[in-house]
Amino acid sequence: MTTARTSVTIGGREVGPGAAPFVIAEMSGNHDGSLERAEDIVRMAAKAGAHAIKLQTYTADTITIDADTAPFHISDAHGLWGGRRLYDLYEEAHTPWEWHEPLFDLARGLGMQAFSSPFDASAVEFLDKLDVPCFKIASSEIVDLPLIRAAAERGKPVIISTGMASVGEIDAAVSAARSTGNEDVLLLSCTANYPADPRESHLRGIPVLGDAFDVPVGLSDHTLGIGAAVAAVALGAVLIEKHVTLSRADGGVDSAFSLEPDELAALVRESETAWRALGQPRIGATAGEAEGLRFRRSLFVVEDVAAGEVVTAANVRSIRPAGGLAPDLLDVVRGRTFRCAVERGTPLSWDLL
């Protein structure tokens, strides 16, 4: 028996429907092998308003092996990394482990959370010693249940991306995390294609994930731009993860689908706007519309009239503001007579007729 969770807490911040979307800036390999550039990305993310910076913790040797056979090559048809050896790609994209602590310290000093995706048990242990507030399990690792259990055993929230996963695989991953007694699980809807076609995002699955597994749900988004991410908020996404870079023109393994500084700032701003716009499931005038209610149309006397005059289209009309009889009563009052003199600009009422 599990306990339904509507939110989790990451570094003291609520991540759930009661808070603005938690925006994670994923650095991945966009540091291009430069610690200075990595630090600039952290500063950029903080300036843009991101709530967290995320790294990836692996080496080429912990994530694969140095092999040149067909299974260890990305297919030639891949739009971004076609034909490359896995080992070479990961060697280029990895973040040196000795960079983690200074980058985390920099992020925390700028008011952001800082954490990473571990890709093996040694990375979990390493990150835990750096006191990360949570762990993120990448889509391809959702089937590595020992890795998920190793992360969940640390007693910190576990964020699991679900790209490519079946419902059964997601259930196994969530169950693996909960088997450790850790109920702080958050799922991310994800399309593990780089870049992803928005038509393959299937954002309507977000509430389905939440209902099926009693967890908060976010979006790990690899589409271009911020449209899909903002739309996800309307469907209940409580967290948005996007890859970021200083400039796509600079190149880098993930730059083609990464957000630039202005786009990241727009994501933070517009995702919060979308969340605030959700409001409550209610219909009717709001407090802010009180003044507008005064300027609805109603029936007014629009010419000075004397007692005994007949109501006509010339002396009574439907105009703004409110205060008079309803516009739909115009045909009812036409032909009646005024019982007293009435000045132009007076709201029509039954006692005048």
From TrEMBL:
Q: Which GO terms describe its biological process?
A: carbohydrate biosynthetic process
**Which keywords has UniProt assigned to this entry?**
Transferase
Return the EC number: 2.5.1.97
InterPro entries xref list: AFP_Neu5c_C_sf, Aldolase_TIM, PseI-like, PseI/NeuA/B-like_N, Pseudaminic_synth_PseI, SAF, SAF_AFP_Neu5Ac, SAF_PseI/NeuA/NeuB
- Indicate the segments forming the AFP-like domain, all copies: 298-353
- Provide the GO MF annotations for this entry: N-acylneuraminate-9-phosphate synthase activity
What Gene3D superfamilies does the record tag this protein with?
A: Aldolase class I, Antifreeze-like/N-acetylneuraminic acid synthase C-terminal domain
Q: Does the keyword Membrane apply?
A: no
This protein's record includes keyword Nucleotidyltransferase: no
Checking PROSITE patterns in the record gives:
AFP_LIKE
Residues folding into a coiled coil are: none
Q: Which Pfam families match?
A: NeuB, SAF
Matching CDD domains, A to Z? SAF_NeuB_like
Broad enzyme group: transferase
NCBIfam families per the UniProt record, alphabetical:
PseI (TIGR03586)
Q: What is this protein called?
A: Pseudaminic acid synthase
* Species of origin: Pedococcus bigeumensis
Instruction: Print the organism lineage.
Output: Bacteria, Bacillati, Actinomycetota, Actinomycetes, Micrococcales
Q: Which gene encodes it?
A: pseI
